[in-house]
Amino acid sequence: MVDSRSLHEQLNHKVEELWQEELEFLKTMIRFPSLSGKEHRLQLFLADYLTTKLKLQVDRFTPAIQQIEKHPGYSPPKWTYEYSDIVIGTHKGINPSEGKTLIFQGHADVVSAEPATEWDSSPWEPFEKDGRLYGRGSADMKGGIAAMIFAYRAVIECGYMPKNDFMIQVVPDEERTGNGALAALEAGYTADAALIPEPFGLQASVGQVGALWFEISLRTIKKDEYKQTQTNVIEKLHTITSSLMAFERYLNQTRSHLAFSDQDNPIDLNIGKVTAGDFASNEPVHATIEGRVALLPGEQISERKQELLDWIKQETKNDIWFKENPPTIDFYGFHAEGTLSDDTSPLFQELDAAHERVTKTKPTRRTLPSTTDARHFQLYYDIDTICYGPVGGQFHEVNEWVDLNSIKDVTKVYATFLANWCGVEKK
What we know:
Blueprint: H1 4-30, H2 40-52, E1 57-61, H3 65-68, E2 86-91, E3 102-107, E4 127-129, E5 132-134, H4 138-157, E6 160-162, E7 166-171, H5 179-186, E8 193-196, E9 204-208, E10 210-219, H6 234-254, E11 269-276, E12 286-295, H7 301-316, H8 320-324, E13 328-330, E14 335-336, E15 339-340, H9 346-359, E16 365-368, H10 374-381, E17 384-387, E18 392-393, E19 401-403, H11 404-422, E20 424-426
């Protein structure tokens, strides 16, 4: 029988011993510009590392749309997955009758670093300052990936092996659909529980909103009867943007959820992209607005879609131009439902114990104003899942950063949790 106190001390010491190597590993990952749809090179690097350094059984494949497109968790993309690998490293338990199975899961993709010229340094060349590491993906979520990989490495380099099955999953396209995580689960890579190191400040997630992406298109080809010109569709964008902001206010005034009562406007509607025209001297005849609207747990994707369609129709019904040129609304990308967790479950209890043992602080909870891959595990596969990761900031913005000491703490927490959850014994 392994003494838990002695094991904990061994793991902490090993994480400290490996820290500089873990830091360099993280910097190497950041140097891969693994934008959504371009994860391939990073995933090749990780697949090789899991194979050669950790001796895991590695499977690498791309999401097969035909295998997931009928799934309720599927989000329809406008892109292919030719360069979006899924990487899964598996350890088969040496005594699976003991312990429980576990997945550490992270996403390889990052969002655009633009405007790159506004960064204090290149977003793809990490730099340290005042205990922070800056770079695109440093927090979201390559810092967490480093932590989960080196947590397992600490366990095996202390001379232990998990008694039950353990997996490291690194998936693509979390930032746009979550289809990478869904494809991995549909391929049969499941477990009793999962931890996802999203950078939420060493706080365990107990709920998250859903997200729905939309694209509203305006188009006119009919010339004005008297001016013999087309209406400039840019002039009509204001009507749509104002309507969307009013829709957001309406949703937050008429919907609520106790779990999100600490947030002023949990149903966030964001206009993220506007395009129109292609020449300064021409009046544009086509414009698009792309955005995202949140859903509280329990709200349905189909209902939110219909609400948005009805709202835009109502808001534009008295405008003659819109009567002749009704906007079209398309839904692609995120079709994500919100989720809640039971924070009294064995998973939370075990993570709380590991957190308290490593940090010497009481565990805390938080709800997330965003969606994560955790929803797939929870809603469709009945896998208890927690997002718990390092401290960071400026996610999806200029000068993204992660706190280095917090990565070290997360690595220690994950190592202790892994040993206790799966059970370990000497090689």
